[in-house]
Design brief:
The protein is of the alpha+beta class. The chain is built from two helices and five strands.
């Protein structure tokens, strides 16, 4: 299972599902992170947290723990 957390800078993935519940899931949905959207890893902070991603034409910063809850479609 590949998650957003596993992407390297410059790589893009397609959201398959969100494994978070409650307020965090609602927060992701409010930010536009929905099934089928393409997310590109822009950069990773020097100490690894947070990460910057790009989706729907804007940049977003997420904690690694949050990114682990966003499952991406398997390649191929």
């Amino acid at each position: 299972m590949k998650t957003l957390n596993n992407l390297r800078p410059g790589e893009t993935g397609i959201v398959d599902r969100i494994t978070a519940d409650g307020a965090l899931k609602r927060h992701f949905l409010d930010m536009g992170i929905t099934k089928g959207v393409a997310i590109t890893m822009e950069r990773i902070a020097p100490f690894g947290d947070p990460i910057a991603v790009r989706l729907r034409g804007y940049s977003l910063s997420l904690r690694r723990q949050e990114a682990k809850k966003i499952v991406l479609e398997a390649a191929g």
